[in-house]
Amino acid sequence: SLIKQFQPKYNINLKDDKSYPYIVIKNEPFPRIFLTRNKINDGSEYLGPFTSVGKVRELLSFIKEFIPLRTCKLNLTQQNILKQKFKVCLEYHLGNCKGPCEGLQSSEDYQEGLQQVKQIIKGNLTPVIQRYKEEMNYYVEELQFEKAEIIKKKIDGLEN
Question: What are the CA-CA distances from residue 27 to residues 24, 36, 44 (Å)?
Answer without folding.
Answer: 9, 15, 5
